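Researcher: I'd like a structural prediction for the single chain below. Treat it as a standalone chain; there are no partners to consider.
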Amino acid sequence: MNEIPILELKNIFKSYNGQDLALKNINLKVKKGEIVAIIGQSGSGKSTLLNIIGALDTPTKGDIYFSGETISHYSSKERAVFRNKNIGFIFQFHFLLSQFNVLDNILIPNWIESGRYSYEKKDEALKILEYMDLKEIAYRNSQNISGGQQQRVAIARALLNKPQIVLADEPTGNLDSKTSQQIYNLLREINKKYNTTFLIVTHNPDIALMCDRVIEISDGEIKKEN
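Model: Treating it as a single chain, here is the predicted structure.
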């Protein structure tokens, strides 16, 4: 019996202004627990693809399936609920708020979604920080920690709601090679511990080669899969 992929894209097109095609007939299956690298030149469609997978944007044409169920017809509100429950996001720039400490930065998305402070979520956040060897900086201002620590805090924030898929857009793009390796190692540890699926957009060939699979995008199309 074939395993149902956690994510499947069928004949995805994305156009802007009814003319420019950012994505052209994308077909992709991702198994649960995979770490997939997405590579390609700037402007090739990588970030557009990530936005559609993350339900931040909608395709012009085509179908998206999550664990076998289509999400293509979701309204804007339904997509927001879906994202909060199932998707975690990590970006090149961590987007930590300078007026808050580390713990609060992790909890802010949950506060926005629920409209209330949750002691249960606070305990979960502290457990994640402890797992990532960051508990000692939980109450430190988010700007008074290193770049590598800031990115690890952003990863902790992405993990708080226990997402099934984490989308990482150049997560090591502004880090040195040693710290980049540490961040990748952390993602792999999380992958093994929680069976979390990762899709990582990267320009770093070393990071790409350490992933389970590499998808190369060029001019809005999948040109190669390794």
